[in-house]
UniProtKB/TrEMBL annotation:
Gene3D superfamilies, A to Z: P-loop containing nucleotide triphosphate hydrolases
Keyword Transit peptide: yes
Domain of life: Eukaryota
Protein name: Dynamin-like GTPase OPA1, mitochondrial
Enzyme class per UniProt: hydrolase
Pfam families cross-referenced by the UniProt entry: Dynamin_N, OPA1_C
Main location: mitochondrion
Biological processes, Gene Ontology terms: apoptotic process; endocytosis; intracellular distribution of mitochondria; mitochondrial fission; mitochondrial fusion; peroxisome fission
Keywords of this entry: Apoptosis, Coiled coil, Disulfide bond, GTP-binding, Hydrolase, Lipid-binding, Membrane, Mitochondrion, Mitochondrion inner membrane, Nucleotide-binding, Transit peptide, Transmembrane, Transmembrane helix
Annotated catalysed reactions: GTP + H2O = GDP + phosphate + H(+)
Residue stretches in coiled coil: 194-239
Assigned GO CC terms: microtubule; mitochondrial inner membrane; mitochondrial intermembrane space
GO MF annotation list: GTP binding; GTPase activity; lipid binding; microtubule binding
Amino acid sequence: MSRILNHRMRSSLRRPSSWSCVDKRAVAFSVWTGRSVLLHKPLDSYQIPRRRYGMLIARAVRGVLKIRYLLLGGAVGGGMTLNKKYVEWKDGLPEMGWLNDLLPDNEQWDKFTTTLLDAKEKIGDQFQIDPRLREAGAVRAAELREWLAQRYEDAVAAAAVKNATSSIEPAPKIVNNLQSRPAPMSAKSNADETAAYERRVHALQEEVLSLQARYQRELQRLEQENRELRQQNMLLRQGRQPSTKKMKRSLIDMYSSVLDELADWDSGEAGRLPRVVVVGDQSAGKTSVLEMLAQARIFPRGAGEMCTRAPVKVTLSEGPYHVAQFNDSSREFDLNKEADLADLRKEVELRMRNSVRGGRTVSNQQIAMSVKGPGIPRMVLVDLPGVISTQTVDMASDTREAIKEMTKQYMDNPNAIILCIQDGSVDAERSNVTDLVSSCDPSGKRTIFVLTKVDLAEENLANPNRIRRILEGKLFPMKALGYYAVVTGRSRKDDSIQSIREYEERFFRSSKLFKDGMVAAGQVTTRNLALGVAECFWRMVRDSVEQQADAFKAMRFNLESEWKNTFPRQRELDRDELFERARAELLDKSAELSGVPAAAWEARLQKALWAAAAQRIFAGIYLPAAANASEDVDMHVLLQVKYKHPKSGDTSQIWLDPFDIDFNKFNTSVDIKLREWAENELATLSIQAGRQALREEFSELMSKSSDSDAIYEPVKKAAVDEALSRHQWEERAQDVLRVLQVNALQDRCVASRGEWDSAVSLMEDALKERLKSTEEDLKSLAGPGFRERWLYWQSSSEEQNRRSEVKSELERLGSSRPNLSYDEVVAVRDNLRRRGVDTDNEYIRETWKPIYLKQFLQRALSRARDCRKSFYLYTQQNGTGKECCEVVMFWRVQSALRTTANALRQQIGNREAGRLDRELREVLDEMSSDADMKKKLLSGRRVELAEELKRVRHVQEKLEEFIEALNKEK
């Protein structure tokens, strides 16, 4: 094919009329194959006229120029159109802020457009047209321009097809074989110019095709992102959340989290990881230096008073946006917005004031925050309160010593980098912090000295060598790794960080002190300070973090060994886990309250009701009614019974003669007293009994769980007690109970033999209990009997022996009268005097009261036994019989208590158990958020060892994760 074309080319050279057709085909073949078919021989051998050759060159140049404008215009116009379409398309999408990371940012688009502009300038600078070519003809140039336009379209189409198949392969090079015919007078120079021209054209074509390929890849990327956005939009419309990518944490954030874990560590050398401790005198510029490193005014300002009242840990890291965030908050403060900056300063000030409550001036409570932004060095700094020499009257009395102790505590860490800030505008002899730094780091291996306010120092100092001596480490007694001089402001609060930095650079450029070479260039500006501190920080981190990880590994081994030896076959549960287990058990038992059988509830409630009402029934109703029904009213003074009111606590005395009773008066008195009791006291007493029964049932349910751990018991008891103390029965329940109780007490008709026997049993039990109590009182008065003295070696006191003599004489008297007559008293006194016991009449009557009460109870108990067989007689008399009216009274009380128990059981099942369960949940929620309460209730070596072991494991895992990331970064 090449030979045929060459032959035709030679023929066409001999035939000028066919030159155009052959020339087109030859040039097309040359461009397509990359080989030249025209230049096998020099062009001057074809005997082309000079004018035609000039016209050919002119046409070629014009065509190339057209290609340049077409390509450049197309590239720029295509890029702008693409950008515009992309912006319109993005604005039409729904608001999905979390998808911003998937879209190209401004830096990528700026870089792309910058490349196009650079290409335009490069083409304009390199492409120079020879003036001699402007004289060429126009006919040949028009033909060549038409061919080049068609060839450009074919080349672009071929490049698009190939880029569609493989976007990463480079575009094929197009070799331009057009050469200019050298002038006869200077053939060598024209050949060089032609070769240079060809190289420029080749470079231009390669760059254009490369730009085209980049456009194609960018379009493919945007189409892929468009498909992903559509999928995520469909998921959002369907109510499903798209999967979010896990963000990789930065190295400095991982290190900062380790420091937070070790903030309150108190185990010797453990946890002493590097951090930059910023120390200095008050108003020396510590906060300003930290703000220059963070590139934002993040701390509040004070007019001559203390601003930093608590340690502030600031984690600096690089990021795409300049933001700040507290560790315990999710809000991000945009540091490029003045409103967010003001809110951040207010929040810092508020946290500092909250930490110094209780009359204190400074606090050890650390405030942790992070600052991210472009160009910010990665490090962790702790800003401490400034050291003071004199404390004012509005400060706490221990402020100066507290600041020194706090500063010393942070600097004593052998891996802490001490950033010592010294005010350059004041005399060096007024410094307080340099001596403190010297005592903590005498060799200066981890101290960096910073001289602030150098601009004021230059104005005020008469001897410039003083600053040079300070920065050379020859003036202060302390030593340091490096010495820096900075300017952190012009005493204006509204200056931005950028303006301060520009002022600092201008100052150091124009300063006489530093122009004369007194200080090296690397010792000035906060930019160099940041680089130096960051380098020292990471060097110390790499040197010490492995040792700290080994220390925690050894500590973990020791703790695990202690656990296995002390608490074998038990899980290592910390306080939170133990509390959650106790919480689950309590709530399970609370749910079981609704499953307690009704019979069990009523039996427990009746028992609780009788225990609460027995004293009131016996001493407040039965005995007073019997006293009121006695036939001989003058003899009511024979027996005294003390009764204590359950609500008011008042004690009253009752005089009783129970042997001769008018049963009509007894029933009337019982009716009155039972109604008063039901209307005033019984409902309240019943609610108290119901709460007691609920507590007892709950306690029994908890005690039934055999697999419960004893360590949970304090939590359970405290939660139940608090829930029951908060639990209040519904107020309307008392009204319901009062109506039921009044109606039950009005019924006097015992319907069945079982109810009669139950009332007799109740009366017998009450009398026996009272009789037993009375016998114990007599025993305490008269002392132990013969059996106790001989078998249990018990002895009596002198008073008990005296009472025993009186008791024996009264029993020998055999009187059945409730009130002893005067003659009987005199007789007893004379008999006692003969036996050597001297006593008076009142002493004898006082001893007779419990003796007579015992006799009364014994006779009443005998009547109760007799009444057990009288139910038939009671039914025959239709309830009008008076002989067993005491049994009827006890039946009425029993019926009222049974009705009350049934009502209370229903109230517990319907309302009170659920309300108690809710109150128990509230108590448990409050306890779960109270760390001090959990620490008090869950204590002991088991809990403390599990807590410490869990914490050591957590810190060790974080350290190993950080070391792995650190090694990958290396």
